[in-house]
Amino acid sequence: MAVADHVDFPTFMEGVKRRNPGQPEFVQAVQEVAEDIFDFIADKEEYHAQQILRRIAEPDRVVSFRVCWEDDNGNIRVQRGWRVQNNNAIGPYKGGIRFHPSVTESVLKFLAFEQTFKNALTGLPMGGGKGGSNFNPKGKSVREIMRFCQSFMTELYRHIGADVDVPAGDIGVGGREIGFMFGQYKRITNEFTGVLTGKGLEWGGSLIRTEATGYGAVYFLANMLAAKGQDLVGKSAVISGSGNVATHAAEKIVQLGGKVLTLSDSGGFIHDPDGITQEKIDWVKAHKTHRRGRIEDYCAEFKSATFTAGKTPWAVPCDVVLPCATQNELNGDDAKMLVANGCIAVSEGANMPTDLAGVHVFKDAKIMFAPGKAANAGGVAVSGLEMSQNSGRRSWSEAELQQMLKDIMAGIHERCLTYGDQGGGYIDYVKGANIAGFKKVADAMLAFGVV
Ligand code: GLU
C-alpha cells in the first residue's frame, strides 16, 4: 500500500492548496466537502486505494478561451471564457454559465465541484460542470450582449453537446442570453438538440424552470421544518438577492404563509416590515429583470420600506433565512448574529453563500442549515427534466412538473437524512448532503476503474 493512499485531512488539504495556488474559492469548496468525507471513508479501504476524493477534486478538464467582441462604439473588447468539466461519472457534464466581473477560474472550479454533488443528490443522471466569463452585462446594450453571447458560443460549441455537456444559466445569464447562445449553436452546427437548458417555451424549454431554484429552496426549507413538526405559516423570512432565485423564493414563502422582510442587491438591502407581498414581488421582478433597475427604488414605490446602502440584511431579526445572492455573502459574524437573534433555519438558494466560519457557527448552534448543494438543486433538477423532455421530444404539463420538483426536493431531503441524522433530533444537512452526493459519484468511479 502506497503511503499517499492514507494521507490525513491536513495533508490532503495542503496538497489541494499547493496544486491550486491563488484559487481560494475552490480550496474552500473542497475543504467543506472533505471535512465530512474523511470521516466517512475512514474505514472504507477501496475509496482510499482508488484515490477517489483526490480524483473528484481534480476537474476532468478546464477549457479556457479568449472571447473577442465589438462594443457599440466600435471598440474591440477582449474577455476570458471558461468551461470547467469537473466530473461525468454519472451523466453528461451539467451546470450553468455565469457572466460577472468576479468570475475567475477559481470561482468556476468551485461551482463545478459543488455542482457534481448537487446533481448527484437530485437522483437524475447528470455530471458536474460550470462555465462563464468575466464579462460584465451591467450597462451593456442588448446588441452588445448578443454579440458577446455569439462570440462566447463560437468557441464553446466544440466542447458541448446534448450527451456531452449541457450548460444553462446562472448569475448574469437568463433566458435572453440562453436564446442568443442557442441561436448561435444551432447556426454553427445546424442541429436542434437539447444542448442548453433554461430555453424559452417556444423552442424546447420546460415549464417552471424559471421558478424551480427559488421554489425548490423553499420546499427544502419546508421539508426541514416538517421533520420537526413545523411549517412556514407566520414565519418571518430574510432573503438576500433580488434576481430569479430570490424573487421566486420570496413568492413561495408568501404562498406557504410566511412573511418576507428583505431583498437586496449589490447596492444594499431593503427592509419592509409590512411584508413583501406577491404584488410587491411582481414589481421587483419587472424592475430588476426588465428595467434592470436597483432594489433601492423599491422604497420610492412602497413607503413602508427602508433602504440600507452597502450592507447585507443579516442583522434583521427573523425565523428563517434564504441567502440567494452569491458566494461568501454571509460570514461567521453574520451567522452568530442570526443565531443570537433567534433564527431557526437557513436554506441556501445561492451556491456557497455561507463562508466556512459561518458554516461552523450554524453547525455548532445545531440549527437547521441546508447547504446550497441540497437546497438549491431544484433549478438543475428541472434542467434535468428539460433534458428528458428534449430527448423524448415531448413536454410535460405544469402540474406534472410541479409535482416532480416537490418529489425531487423531498427525495434530496431523505438522502440527507441517511448520513446526516446525528441523533437527539439534530440533522447535519451539510454532512448528509456531502456524503450522499459523494457516495453516488464515488461508486460510479469505482466501477470504471482507473480512468
Ligand atoms: N446555475 C444553476 C445551478 O447553480 C443551474 C444549473 C443548470 O440548470 O444546469 O445549479
UniProtKB/TrEMBL annotation:
Chain positions of site Important for catalysis: 170
Residues that hold substrate according to the record: 94, 115, 118, 169, 383
Keywords: NAD, Nucleotide-binding, Oxidoreductase
Gene Ontology terms: biological process: glutamate biosynthetic process
Annotated InterPro entries: Aminoacid_DH-like_N_sf (IPR046346), Glu/Leu/Phe/Val/Trp_DH (IPR006095), Glu/Leu/Phe/Val/Trp_DH_C (IPR006096), Glu/Leu/Phe/Val/Trp_DH_dimer (IPR006097), Glu/Leu/Phe/Val_DH_AS (IPR033524), Glu_DH (IPR014362), Glu_Leu_Phe_Val_DH (IPR050724), NAD(P)-bd_dom_sf (IPR036291)
Function according to Swiss-Prot or TrEMBL: Catalyzes the reversible oxidative deamination of glutamate to alpha-ketoglutarate and ammonia.
Name used for this protein in its record: Glutamate dehydrogenase
